[in-house]
Specification:
heterodimer; A: alpha+beta; Rossmann fold; Coagulation Factor XIII, Chain A, domain 1; six-stranded mixed beta sheet; four-stranded antiparallel beta sheet; 24% helix; B: mainly alpha; globular
Chain lengths: 425, 298
Amino acid sequence: MNDIVIQTERLSKKYRIGKKYDKYRTLRDTIADSSRALFERAGRLMNGQATVAPPGDESIWALRDVSFDVSRGEIVGIIGRNGAGKSTLLKILSRVTEPEDGRGWICGRVGSLLEVGSGFHPELTGRENVYLNGAIIGMKKSEINRKFDEIVSFAEVEQFIDTPVKHYSSGMYLRLAFSVAAHLEPDIMLVDEVLAVGDARFWNKSIHKMRTLNAQGMTILLVTHDMWLVQTICSRAICLEKGSVVTDGTPLNAIGLYKQLTGQLTGQLANTATGDASGKKESSADGGFAELHEFEMFPAGEGVSKNGSLPDSGIRVEMKAHVDGVLSVGFLLRVTSPDGFPYFTVYSEPVSPGDGGLVECRAHIPHLMLLPGDYVLWGAVCRGGDEEQILTERHLPLLVNGNGTTSNGKSLFWNRAEWQVHATC
Amino acid sequence: MLTNRPGLESIAADRQVCWGRQEPGNMTVTRIEPSRGWVSLRLSELCGYYELFYVLIWRDIKVRYKQTVIGVAWAIIQPFFTMVVFSIFFGRLAKMPSDGIPYPIFSFAALVPWTFFSNGLSKASNSLVSNSNIIKKIYFPRMLLPIAGVMSGIVDFLLAGVMLIGMMLYFGIVPTINVLWLPLFLLLALATSLGVSLWLSALNVQFRDVQHIIPFLTQIWLFATPIAYPSSLLSEPWKTLYGLNPMAGVVEGFRWALLGTNAAPGPLILVSAAVTVLLVLGGAYYFRRMEKTFADIV
């Protein structure tokens, strides 16, 4: 498992923005720029300033000191916001562009699926494009001949194989492009957000194909915004932000961070995931006040131990709160990943606090249905009827034990089934 | 983290680190690092991509006359009508000397290699820009594109060549044994076209002005080349120096090999060949040097 196939060391890539590398730079611009730069430099010299980089040479680091290793057979998800450097990273790994600094190596044949049919020529037929695209991504003619029928039947375009691809629907285009790339059978496949097109059935088929290829030992780097995909097929995820790696670890952690970056976590819970847990907070907007005196959790159900809960066991929670200035309050329980990715939230019925402002509750979650791992259990008091206005909250670590489970990773939830398996004649 | 990482060198040294195509089954290691200073031409890398090279040429040929009514006939029409126009204006009206050969065949024998050269030049010079979609997505030696652009004109050249043979039969001209030199002159035309294209295609990535310069350039070059007139109009030191325009060497070479005009234009062709070698070498180095920026700025 420790067979490293990709290693990068401080890969960096700088893109010049502004004037220096304008997309359509004309000779006149160059002459104008250089003469202006000359004058400006002369001007600075006159004023006794040092001549530094010419003005207008602004640059941004699309990637900054990116180091990671990938072992054979991993499926690594690369996530991050737009412009975080994901595609640049894949471009560097596929040698389309050179890094500005840093280095790395890749062991084995690299195949890339970087954009739908980028190597296709619209005037050529499907058949011709299979050969063209195959050659562009690095297949030999004999190899394409051998796999041709398989490629076409996987793409489900048998009927249209002698039609120019300009008459194809975008789905057919995608299917054929994916199919060619998938049959390259590289040691390492770089996939950049291509599965967005295509219907659900073909999408499933592509995912299945990737899993199959992965099971045969192919390493996959997958750039995507589809967190579900990351959670369900990746063994690991790297989250990039402003060109740097911010997380490199389990998909769960990376997704949690990504959600934080994109501001998708609602309420107070996420922001205070690592903050204090005093349980005291004043809601300034409406003057309501609440305090959680007690917040205790007990494992409940079969097979619980002192160490934590099993996926199938449940928990009991007891909370006591003191509220003031609020007409009606409700309790909330939420389980999140350590980074704040929410799994579920349950709300109680709202109640009106008594004269002393005391409320207490007892909750029982019979089955957690969570995969083994670390979680955070949040308890909160919120304004009655308004689920997101949390008055106060506290959290506890929640450990779900890994032994004795019958469901494996690369999925979101744990569950079990009543099986009746027997051989039939 | 960093302490557990085995050193790059130690791992890379275990495997044979080399540039080039990754062969299936034979796990080669591809290095990723910025190139510094003057890069080598890495021509051996091109050889690893010969299949892609063929496919690119095949694609260009295949696509060239798609969705046209008369298709490949365009390959003949272009030089043929230029020849007709030249024959009327230069041959008939201006009474241009033609080394004692009927003017139509005199100009057509020059127009065939010229059309190959100028079509290849304009196609190859735009090749990087017109293939930007694959340049931005997939790695391969970019030099394949201009080379394939020039080479794809071969089919047109052969078709026009058939026309040329037909005209020679019509005018009753039988080529001498010198015709064996013809492939060499074709190679010279190809190399000249490629040498110029390497410069222009790399410049075109950054300066789209090149696109507008190319039609001018080929038009002016057409008249700077002895196509409508013979180079025998010049007297000696100048006639050899005319070879500084490599197409002068190509055109005179074609005429000599096919039509048997005058004596062998030896010195002229040597000068042309030398210029072409410089063009190709300089172009190739410039291209390689700019290559790493193509994907970012095209």
